[in-house]
């Protein structure tokens, strides 16, 4: 693909591209790079143009594709989970002999091993999501606290107009909306990891599959000894970029059991407790720091806060003063 057709965006430039309008051959090269080996066909003598914004966040790929002209996307078998969310127009999808015509109210899903057939109407636009198989199945195993047998039986299509699936689609659209902003937090590895986990767990909680009933059934609370182990881990290293799955592994229990154990024995979620410890450590650091050599930003980043505005807001709510006011009192 000609280099001039790609404009990389943000610090994660190897995993993000943007192009406004290119021909089918070049578009196929980009889709092969970010999604799956696909053939991109057009009727004989027809012209078609494709535009896209794509970002990779570890095992998660989110792209917004636009089509002008008749195009058909075919893959003999995908090696990951693939979801298509039309944002304008409609798309005809086929999975294992079943055809679905989807619009902005419907998402279409393909599982590892499924052949993919997508024929967008023109003009049309869609958000395409690729999730690596190991990532989604590991996320499900962590939530349940036991191994799972994949692939997960995602439905061919599911409704996006209400309930958890509607909320999940808004999260996907948020990622798309952030693509054009070079300073977006989605390019920060710590934030990207949390967003990726939220997308994966949100999908698993939003659509029917054979593990869904078990997933939404209230979990037994974790024993106090395991909860204490997590509390000790957080207090020992609150600056580490913990995820709730990391803490569940420390407790040797499922994410749901950890959350229920914290609710019952601590009175808050694991991540809320982690933030409280970080705020306290940041407060102590600012109280004893020299404002001539230390900045609020440096203290925030030291204790795991990637977004200064949110740090300042949480700090003021907790201590009744801004971080800079606390630092100046040392002068």
UniProtKB/TrEMBL annotation:
The entry's keywords: Activator, DNA-binding, Transcription, Transcription regulation
GO MF assignments: DNA-binding transcription factor activity; sequence-specific DNA binding
Protein name as it appears in the record: AraC-like DNA-binding protein
PANTHER family in alphabetical order: HTH-TYPE DNA-BINDING TRANSCRIPTIONAL ACTIVATOR EUTR, HTH-TYPE TRANSCRIPTIONAL ACTIVATOR RHAS-RELATED
Any Pfam family: AraC_binding_2
All residue ranges annotated as the HTH araC/xylS-type domain in the record: 228-329
Sequence intervals crossing the membrane: none
PROSITE patterns: HTH_ARAC_FAMILY_1, HTH_ARAC_FAMILY_2
